[in-house]
Amino acid sequence: MTATGRTCLVTGFPLDAARRVALELAGHGDRVLVLARDKFVPDARQLAETAAATTPGKIEIVVGDILAIDLGLDGATVRRIHAEVGEVHHLAAIHYLGIDAPRMRQVNVDGLREVLELALGMVQLKRVCVWSTVFVAGNRTGRVYEHQLHKGQSFRNPYERTKAQAEALARSAMARLPVTVVRVPNLVGDSRTGQAARLDGVYSVACSIVEQAEPVRLPVPGAHPLHVVPVDFAVQAAVALTRHPDGIGGTFHVVDEAPLTARAFFDAVADAAGRPRPVVTLQSRLGHALARLPAWSRQTRHEHALLDWFESDVRFDNSRARQLLGGTRCPAVTQYVDKLVAWLRDRDD
Fold it and tell me: How far is it, in rounded angstroms, from Cα 54 to Cα 50?
């Protein structure tokens, strides 16, 4: 470890959340080892330069592969990690629903297995934070509690299924490793700047609302909660839970405690953009049904599969997370939606 902070390992680069976790840790004065595949090394070096200019910590790049034995690292690097790393933040995952299920399982499940195996040799280890998703609840309705995993639910896509399998793997490792699991919903842009890394999911609808003069047609009524949080809150909460002494062996929902319905969320986007509020029509609902047919493209099925989450009548209890996070709370959508819209309008495509 460094004299002033921890030595941490972060997987998942170049995901936006992984970048932000690395910078958050560097902001605490930590030395952060960022695992990056060879093709992403130039991008990772830019992140290291940003950390050097803006934080008291340091980011170093270790070249490897989440699917390889010992993450594809050479012997000297493995020995260094075993001797020095005290904290692991595992974010590597495939979220895009158009990816084939076997590949998704490789990354989401087998990748975590490799990280846990490596962690077993870390003599300084204090915590392993595994990023999961609230959508391991699958098609459950009603209130879902943090300690629950398998409750007879069905999974609507390979992402939900493989993340549940990964979480089961993380739970089985808790007998040997100090694991903390954080479940996040869909991530939106930074609550302070609006900046987002990807324009899929919620943004596929939000962009249309901002860019079109005519009302956007929603394929679903949107009467149930839309579970989103700003990425900066998710990162801050995940790091805080990882470093809380009572976080070991726990699973925590990092959520908005008072989520808007999907319809209210998109109405708020329209109001902030000065656009007409979206409408639901029979034609748009038929389009949603047609998008489920195999002949439709992966991209179309990806976007429409996300709408299943808009239709789920489910709430995620965050009592345990709230207790440990103290005053750290997710900002209300009304506090940051104008930032999201302004960034969408001003972005360079």
Answer: 6
What pTM value is reported for the model? 0.93
Q: Which of 349, 23, 335, 22 is nearest to 189 (CA)?
A: 335
pLDDT tens-place string over residues 200-212: 888 888 999 999 9
Report residue 276 as tokens: 């007409």
Nearest residue to 203 via CA among 215, 214, 211, 192: 211
Domain 7-188+228-257+315-330 belongs to what architecture?
3-Layer(aba) Sandwich (3.40)
DSSP summary character for residue 291: T
Domain positions in the chain? 7-188+228-257+315-330, 202-225+260-313+337-343
For residue range 96-146, list pLDDT tens digits in order.
Answer: 877 889 999 999 999 999 999 999 999 999 999 999 999 999 999 999 999
**In the structure encoding, which two tokens stand for residue 177, read together?**
């490793």
